Amino acid sequence: MAEPDFSATGVRIERWPRSLTTAGEVLIKDGKLALLTSYGRVIDSAPVRAVRAGRPWFAGRDGTTVAMLNGHRYRLTMGQRSRRPDGAATALAGRFLEAVRRAGTGRG
């Protein structure tokens, strides 16, 4: 089985105006992006080529990104449950955006 292009756990996943999970998972594997609950249930998934992602203007220097899947906008806050040093959440969010960009263009 292939390794995922990106995987992050402990992600707060919100679909405005409500929180869907505070310890979810974001997974990019085999050209598909999946948002999962802490129990592994799929919240939403889509081919990465159809996903738009970026950093919102209000995010500041934290690990917040916004992803559009199937017409729904999700706010993803990376690394909020980890005990990593400051800046790790921002780096994780950057790796997520890079993985979406790479997978969307077909380069690996």
Topology:
Blueprint: E1 6-15, E2 18-29, E3 32-36, E4 42-47, E5 52-54, E6 64-69, E7 72-77, H1 88-105
Antiparallel strand pairs: 1-2, 1-7, 2-3, 3-4, 5-6, 6-7
What does this structure look like?
- It is a single chain.
- The chain is 17% helix and 44% strand.
- The chain has 108 residues and is of the alpha+beta class.
- It has a seven-stranded antiparallel beta sheet with strand order 4-3-2-1-7-6-5.
- Strand 1 and strand 2 (18-29) form a beta hairpin.
- The chain is globular and about 30 Å long.
- The protein starts with 5 loop residues before the first strand and ends with a helix.
Q: Report the total helices.
A: 1
What is the chains' assembly state? single chain
- Tell me the strand order in the biggest sheet: 4-3-2-1-7-6-5
Give the overall shape.
globular
Question: Helical residue percent?
Answer: 10-25%
Mean pLDDT comes to 88
β-strand amount: 35-45%
Q: Rg to the nearest angstrom?
A: 13 Å
By DSSP, the count of extended strands is: 7
Task: State the end-to-end CA separation.
Answer: 16 Å
* Parts with pLDDT < 50 across at least 5 consecutive residues: none
Major sheet description? 7 strands, antiparallel
H/E element sequence: EEEEEEEH
Which key phrases capture this entry?
108 residues; alpha+beta; 1 helix; 7 strands
